[in-house]
Write a structure and sequence with these properties.
Distance between the termini: 65 Å
Largest sheet: 8 strands, mixed
CATH architecture of the largest domain: 3-Layer(aba) Sandwich
Number of domains: 4
Number of strands: 30
Radius of gyration: 29 Å
CATH topology of the largest domain: D-Maltodextrin-Binding Protein, domain 2
């Protein structure tokens, strides 16, 4: 349950005395607070017991900590750990607001919080937005679930002090919904004369992990020692044994937590077990590294936020985008797909460019999906977000939205789960083509990342990766997916991190990205059309210009010059590539180069095959929109070098999108053909 922490209480109890160094706790006893929250911690004949209680007691024993454990009201414990030194509280959920307020040891519990209704209530609630319309939701004061709902815009909440009071209101019909944890709900009902047959799960609200929270003034050495001993308990099997004693049907939180979403055929639940082709790839990696299999399934939004907040979380699968690059650590790629705009069959909606999508009244997206983030970054304001992709399809079919964005490899399963078939929809246009990865929270140790990379390289090299992938998607295009050098060849973010590039390539990328910055600034200052005109005027200045000869031209630098092209679109596909500016050959301006071909020389060491009619401009256009996976704007090709009598050289270009249809770029010569 994502409560502000897990437990509440009423009595005080003194436990375990041992030698505690001054360095550990400032010569004072550690004061530990918890509450009665069966089966995690509660009093049995005056003795504190339960899953979390046993874990804390074992850590106290192993660290030889002198400690008082006090059972008190949650509010009292929370206030104490906020204000007093050498104080701890368990179990508490780590939220963005709380993360910097405490020191953390854990996780020691993991639990789903669901909306529960009285059996037979027929609430008609299918998604979170529906719950906002419920007459009344009863919540426990200062629980994380209350915080979360208020933050999400819920105004229909009635606050009570205890969970017992909340469940009684639900059972008496005085409230329609109550958010509670799947772990604690059975005992809560039992203590109030009811069973799980008296309620029904309506909707998953969240998944959270419970920690031991220490006051900021507690010795960091003591906190680190507690984390070390907890990790040892997980390694030697003690923790798993305690968890199984109290919750035999539940998967315990390990040192590394693996979180995913229902996203067939990538990840999904089958016969009570999480499976899917990326799930099996991750499971093969963990098996080879002897990491316990603790893969959990939740909503994407919840999984994404857990990985953002908590350390040692593995999130899969995630598109590696510019926005996300610095939020996670990455291993992959492990798959690829295309994001497609779908309309209801017979809608008559046509798109010749992405600008046409802005004119649509409403577009269905999924909360925190990469394509929703992409559209928001592009300034789209007509998005209607859903926590689950099937809900987005339902909104499309009932007319709430005119388009929805799904990925090609998962659309069939999503549409089926919504109660429709692909014959009920029609693709309108492709938004993007991307690779997806395994994402790690920033708090994950470097050695863990390296182990995953090493294992992934191994399964790609020995054929296991391809076997798993094709068993779920027969005949899938594996191009790029079997690359085992992603770290060396992936440049994170468009016009961002240049540190990994060789000097000459870094100069090229800096040159193009500086031009992009100037163009964007001009567009902001002068308006789109005037800003582009002013920028392209500078692009078009030739090396023969006297100012350029004196080094005063911003977009002429040795062999570097800028060019700009515009893609004309039809049905979501490029049909023309018109030159808008050119710093080397002004005669090219205004011409269509979509079908322009040239002879591509073979460079096996670079993976370039001989081609008689290569479409250079399409290649560079694709690179600008990052459809080439690892290359992220770079493209290799062969081209005549005018300073060498137009003899064929290998050339590397870098291009970047300026608008939805306009891209700019430049290039450098690398080596003469045959050398």
């Amino acid at each position: 349950m994502k409560k502000l922490a897990y437990f509440l209480l009423t009595i005080s109890l003194i436990l375990f005395t041992g030698a505690l160094s001054a360095a550990q706790a400032g010569q004072e006893k550690l004061k530990i607070y918890t509450d009665s929250f069966e089966p995690l911690n509660y009093l049995d004949n005056g003795r504190l017991t339960g899953l979390a209680a046993e874990v804390v007691q074992e850590i106290v024993k192993r660290t030889k900590t002198k400690a008082d454990i006090k059972v008190a009201a949650w509010e009292d414990g929370y206030k104490a750990v906020m204000e007093r030194p050498n104080t701890a509280l368990f179990s508490m959920a780590m939220t963005p607001e709380r993360k910097a307020m405490f020191q953390w040891v854990g996780p020691i519990t993991v639990q789903d919080t669901n909306f529960y209704a009285k059996k037979g209530a027929n609430t008609g609630i299918a998604r979170l937005e529906d719950a906002k319309k419920a007459p009344k939701i009863v919540v426990v004061k200062n629980y994380a679930s209350e915080e979360q709902l208020r933050k999400t815009g819920f105004t229909n909440l009635e606050t009570v002090i205890t969970e017992d009071a909340a469940i009684k209101k639900l059972l008496r019909g005085e409230a329609e919904l109550f958010p509670s944890g799947n772990i604690t709900m059975p005992s809560l009902l039992r203590n109030n004369g009811a069973t799980m047959n008296d309620v029904e799960k309506v909707l998953n609200l969240s998944t959270n992990m419970g920690y031991i929270a220490f006051s900021r003034s507690t010795s960091p050495k003591l906190v680190a020692l507690w984390q070390k001993k907890l990790d040892e308990m997980k390694t030697d099997g003690t923790f798993r044994k305690i968890y199984a004693k109290w919750l035999p049907a539940e998967t315990p939180p390990e040192i590394i937590q693996m979180i995913t979403e229902e996203y067939p055929p990538v990840t999904f639940m089958k016969d009570g077990k999480v499976t899917g082709f990326v799930t099996e790839i991750v499971r093969e990696i963990t098996s080879r590294q002897r990491i316990p299999d603790n893969i959990r399934l939740t909503s994407w939004d919840e999984a994404y936020n857990l990985a953002l907040i908590n350390p040692n979380v593995v999130l899969f699968s995630a598109e590696r985008t510019e926005q996300r690059e610095k939020l996670f650590k990455w291993v992959g790629p492990v798959g690829k797909n295309s994001s497609i705009f779908y309309a209801k069959k017979g809608s008559g909606i046509k798109m010749n460019s992405l600008e046409d999508a802005r004119k649509v009244s409403a577009i269905g997206t999924v909360t925190n999906w990469f394509n929703e983030q992409d559209l928001k970054n592009r300034g789209f304001t007509n998005l209607v977000s859903s926590q689950r992709p099937a809900d987005s399809v339902k909104k499309l079919m009932n007319g709430e939205v005119k388009l929805c964005v799904l990925t090609d490899i998962t659309a069939g399963d999503i549409v089926k789960s919504a109660g429709y078939t692909m014959d009920d929809l029609e693709p309108v246009a492709t938004l993007s083509s991307t690779y997806f990865y395994i994402a790690f929270s920033l708090g994950t140790p470097k050695e863990t990342i390296e182990k995953f990379k090493s294992a992934l390289t191994g399964i790609k090299s020995d054929g296991t990766f391809e076997k798993i992938y094709l068993s779920y998607i027969p005949g899938a295009d594996m191009t790029g997916l079997l690359n085992t050098k992603e770290s060396a060849s992936y440049y994170p973010g468009e016009c961002s991190d240049l540190s990994k590039l060789p000097a000459k390539e870094r100069e090229l990328m800096e040159f193009v990205c500086n031009a992009k910055a100037v163009a964007l600034a001009n567009m902001k200052k002068l308006g789109k059309e005037a800003g582009l005109a002013a920028t392209f005027k500078e692009f078009d200045r030739q090396a023969s210009d006297p100012d350029c000869k004196r080094g005063k031209c911003q977009f002429q630098k040795g062999e570097l010059y800028m060019y700009a092209y515009e893609n004309a679109m039809k049905d979501g596909h490029v049909v023309k590539i018109k030159c808008l500016a050119h710093g080397a050959n002004p005669s090219m301006i205004g011409k269509d180069f979509y079908n322009a071909g040239f002879e591509m020389r073979a460079y096996p060491e670079y993976g370039i095959e001989e081609q008689k009619d290569a479409k250079f401009f399409r290649m560079v256009s694709d690179a600008a929109y990052r459809k080439n996976g690892y290359t992220d704007g770079f493209v290799l090709f062969t081209w005549p070098n005018p300073v060498d009598g137009n003899r064929i050289w290998l050339k590397k270009g870098y291009s970047t999108k300026l608008t939805d249809t306009i891209w700019i770029g430049s290039g450098i010569y690398i080596e003469k053909a045959g050398q």
